[in-house]
Amino acid sequence: MTDDPDMAAIATWVDGRLPGLDGPVRLHRFQVGQSNPTYRIQTEAGDYVLRRKPLGTLLKSAHAVEREYAVQRALQGTVVPVPRMHLLCEDAGVIGAPFYLMDHVAGRSFDDPRLPNQSPSKRAAIMDAMNATLAAIHLVDPVAAGLGGYGPDGDYYARQIARWIKQYSASATEDMAAMDQLIDWLQANRPADDGRRTLVHGDYRIDNLLFAQGGTDVVAVLDWELSTLGHPFADLAGVIMQWRMPPGPDGRGLAGVDRAALGLPSDADFIAAYCARMGLPGIDGFGFYLAFCFFRMGAILQGVKRRGLDGNAANPEKAAKLGAYAPEFARQGLLAAREG
Asked: Are 69 and 53 in contact (CB under 8 A)?
């Protein structure tokens, strides 16, 4: 029994609009990620990637492959590196869920920010490229890119906090006091809207980037499911949030790591480099943005856990393991809040 996509049905729907799909193909499912199942399709005419929503009952507005397709298609005329988009199918009747097809981009993926097997100078260059790409995303003119209506107007954090409270409540499996406290703190300490409104990725991490084979440049930014128009500091704080987790395959963080010895930037250095690229003197009250990111990721992980229990996760065993981190993200969010 498999839930792999029906390639014959896809070829019929494509109807010759993409070369190679009407002939023999090889299908490989990527095992990384817990969001939208993703497959490499190898054809005689070239390789494609198919990304679809999970099968089964889903939370409203989750797994938005339609938005992923739209934003990456819009970014193809900008300096932000994204795969070339080809076709979007919004008809769930074709393979059981909406999906899109894009080019396969050859590149290196790093799921450990310690960047093992890299020299200190290469680590520094990779992290600097990550920083430069984040600034490039935030410097895109949404209107010029055709993304002027990609997100609603108004207070981004008010909107996001309300959204993720709703998502968390819908996927909760047990009481979590730290999460309740964090939600209360965020609602009471939300800063006034400063008017910043840029494209935001929503899940900007090193494992959502592809780097050049043998080089340090970013060749593709992936996984745009949570992207919208909003406040750029949420993306920056998301990077720092991940680094505060324990190192290793589960936490994928840098807590306790001697970064200077490895050639990796400190939190302060990474923030300063970003501010220089954005023309900012610094960021006041960074603790709020960091606490918000811990809250949002805690809510996401709770959703991963719930999908695993409901049988809708891409990898149920990994879903259970990742979901167990939700309380730790809530705890770290409270620590960030106290730091200010």
From this structure: no
Instruction: Establish if 278 belongs to a structural domain.
Output: yes
Average pLDDT over residues 23-39: 83
Residues 312 and 163 in one domain: yes
pLDDT in tens, 249-302: 878 999 999 999 999 999 999 999 999 999 999 999 999 999 999 999 999 899
- Per-residue pLDDT of 15-24, as tens digits, reads 999 999 989 9
Tokens of 318: 């990994």
- 61 with 209, same domain? no
Separation of alpha carbons 69 and 17, rounded Å: 17
**CATH code at 22?**
3.30.200.20
For helices 156-171 and 233-243, what crossing angle results, to 10°? Answer: 50
Query: Number of C-alpha atoms within 13 angstroms, CB side, residue 27?
Result: 17
The pairs formed by 325-328 with CB atoms below 8 angstroms and a separation of 24 or more are: 325/245, 325/250, 325/251, 325/301, 326/176, 326/179, 326/298, 326/299, 326/301, 326/302, 327/176, 327/178, 327/179, 327/298, 328/245
Are residue 24 and residue 171 in the same domain, yes or no? no
Say if residue 171 is in the same domain as residue 303.
yes
What CATH code is carried by the domain that includes residue 323? 3.90.1200.10
pTM above 0.70, yes or no: yes
**Can you name the residues that pair with 220 across neighbouring β-strands?**
210
Q: Tell me the DSSP string of 33-78.
A: -SSS-EEEEEETTEEEEEEEPPSS---TT-S-HHHHHHHHHHHTTS
The tokens describing 134, both together, are 């984040």
pLDDT (tens digit, 9 = 90+) per residue, 108-121? 999 999 999 999 99
Residues 306 and 226 in one domain: yes
Expressed as residue numbers, the domain containing 163 is 120-339
Q: Give the C-alpha separation, 283 to 285, whole Å.
A: 7
Counting Cα atoms < 13 Å in the Cβ hemisphere of 182 gives 33
Task: Give a yes or no: residue 62 inside a domain.
Answer: yes
CB 273 within 8 A of CB 265: yes
Number of CB atoms found within 10 A of residue 99's CB: 27
Domain boundary among 78, 103, 128: 103
